[in-house]
Write a structure and sequence with these properties.
The chain is mostly helical. It has helices at residues 28-46, 52-72, 77-91, 94-97, 104-121, 126-144, 158-187, 191-210, 234-258, 264-285, 288-308, 314-324, 335-353, 366-390, 398-414, 423-446, 454-469, 474-482, 484-496, 502-508, and strands at residues 9-12, 225-228. The protein has a two-stranded antiparallel sheet with strand order 1-2. α6 runs antiparallel to α7 (158-187).
Length: 510
């Protein structure tokens, strides 16, 4: 997942005491100050469990201040930047979305429009270029996954959005590398020159110290703002490189699903523009693990895209996955790497399974017999990785980990269906079903009050479906009666992902 947008930092002079201040904005700084104050209040109410509704209300007021300021000062870059950044930040907060006007699509479209507006004011701001790339990537991912529905207009082509995002990241990187080179050149000033400058400065300071203090001007009670320009570091460069690799990884997923568009250019882009620079930056920043994760995810995603284009056979695809995480000598102690490896195994299973849906024969064909053994092996590896990750103290988003464990068991159970007839899966079906029920229940419990209820609903509905397949329909019937649309959405996804079959739905009477 992409990182949060880069936030401009400001220094604000303290307000002077005196008569109450007129809140009508006189300068762009007045609008900026009011907006930042509301943002800070929103952050305060969002922190921890917080009050999502109150937090959202403050963030909306911050946007109102930025909008009002831009009407008066349409060329204020700081106002335009803050508005665009905040809109995208809010799109990354599931708990707040239900309390904001519009939906996720509205917010992302508005964020993209706002970023383009800010670019008209200043196209040479690296942070803005970076953030624009992030917005485009997020929009492309959600459209490609079918999570955004364009009601009135055709949805943008995700491939073009990904490509435009890469262009913005590359522009950002070129600018940052130029700035970094300039800073390095300035840092190479000789020690003698620095010493001489320090001595001259000390002499001036001594003379100045003997002079009487100048009176301070206390007449202004305005807020004065100054933008803090953070120096570009190797770590800054690495952030942008990693963002590009993550975008390429998501792009591979799109190419894999479509089975079109040769992924060769993606590999060439990575090797020619990113690979060496990323490794160098990792060595100089000590962020080797972070880079190793990004490399492994990209390698697996590229292998999946190549397999979808029939450029790899199954044994080669398996080798790509098995070697992707070789740098992790203690994989069993790295929760994130274990979860990423599990996702790669599940992606392998999905890519191998989907073509079998097009086989129209009576009884299990020879391909089924051979592939069922391979699929069982990879699904078991995925489950083992997730189980190990769930027991580590640094494991994050445990609800999602348990959801994936439940899905693994349901996938393994599916291998025992009449169309597959894998004997081990058939004999283990009751145990696999019970395990899935336990994992889904754990996921629902851990997800309570998080992510606007999305994962909690998904897990609880999946649990009800599993219980229904075991013969008890009461829980599922209650959920269907209370929230039919949500149940239907989860069922649709489960069928598309192969977690349940149409035969299972017939058993449930759905």
């Amino acid at each position: 997942m992409l990182s949060m947008p880069k936030q401009k930092q400001y220094l604000k002079s303290p307000r002077k005491s005196g008569k109450p201040k007129d809140t009508t904005p006189v300068t762009a700084d007045d609008s900026l100050a009011a907006g930042v104050d509301f943002e800070e209040a929103g952050e305060k109410w969002r922190a921890g469990a917080g009050d999502a509704q109150k937090s959202a209300r403050f963030f909306v007021r911050a946007l109102d201040e930025y909008n009002a300021g831009l009407k008066l000062f349409p060329r204020s870059f700081d106002l335009a930047y803050n508005k665009a950044r905040l809109q995208y930040e809010l799109a990354q907060q599931p708990r707040l979305l239900q309390h904001l006007p519009g939906d996720l699509l509205d917010l992302l479209k508005a964020a993209l429009t706002s970023h383009r507006y800010a670019l008209e004011i200043d196209q040479g701001n690296a942070d803005l270029l970076f953030n624009t790339g992030q917005v485009l990537t997020t929009l492309a991912e959600l459209i490609a996954e079918g999570h955004l529905e364009y009601a009135d207009t055709p949805a943008p082509e995700p491939l073009y959005l990904f490509q435009e995002a890469l262009e913005f990241f590359q522009r950002c990187l070129s600018l940052q590398e130029y700035q970094f080179t300039q800073l390095e050149a300035e840092a190479n000033v000789s020690a003698q020159e620095l010493t001489g400058a320090a001595e001259r400065s000390a002499g001036v300071s001594a003379e100045t110290a003997s002079e009487p203090n100048q009176p301070k001007n206390e007449s202004s009670d305005e807020d004065h703002w100054a933008t803090i320009v953070e120096p570009v570091t190797r770590s800054t460069l690495l952030d942008t490189l990693l963002a590009q690799v993550e975008t390429l990884t998501s792009l591979c997923g799109l190419l894999s699903d479509r089975g079109t568009n040769d992924p060769n250019w993606v590999e060439q882009y990575y090797q020619s523009l990113l690979q060496e620079r990323m490794l160098l930056a990792a060595q100089e920043t000590g962020r080797q693990r972070e880079v190793a994760l990004a490399k492994a995810r990209f390698k697996c995603a590229l292998a999946d895209a190549d397999f979808g284009m029939a450029r790899l056979d199954i044994p080669t695809y398996e080798r790509e996955i098995s070697t992707a995480y070789e740098e992790f000598t203690e994989l069993e102690n790295d929760a994130q790497a274990l979860c990423d490896r599990a996702d790669a195994e599940l992606a392998f299973d999905a890519s191998v399974w989907k073509p079998l849906l097009r086989i129209d024969v009576e009884g299990p064909p020879a391909d089924y017999v051979r592939l069922n053994v391979i699929r069982w092996k990879h699904l078991t590896k995925a489950l083992d990785n997730l189980t190990t990750a769930s027991k580590l103290p640094d494991a994050k988003n445990l609800s999602r980990v348990h959801l994936r464990r439940g899905d693994c068991e349901m996938h393994r159970r599916s291998l025992g269906a009449p169309s597959s007839a894998y004997d081990l899966a058939s004999k283990s079906a009751p145990i696999l079903l019970k395990n899935a029920e336990i994992y889904y229940r754990s996921a629902a419990r851990l997800a309570q009050g998080q992510s606007a209820g999305g994962e909690e609903w998904e897990a609880s509905i999946k649990e009800a479906i599993v219980i229904g397949l075991s013969g008890n329909m009461s829980n599922l019937e209650e959920k269907i009666a209370a929230h039919p649309a949500r149940v239907q959405e989860v069922i649709k996804d489960m069928v598309e992902e192969g977690v349940v079959s149409t035969d299972d739905l017939q058993r449930l009477g759905i």
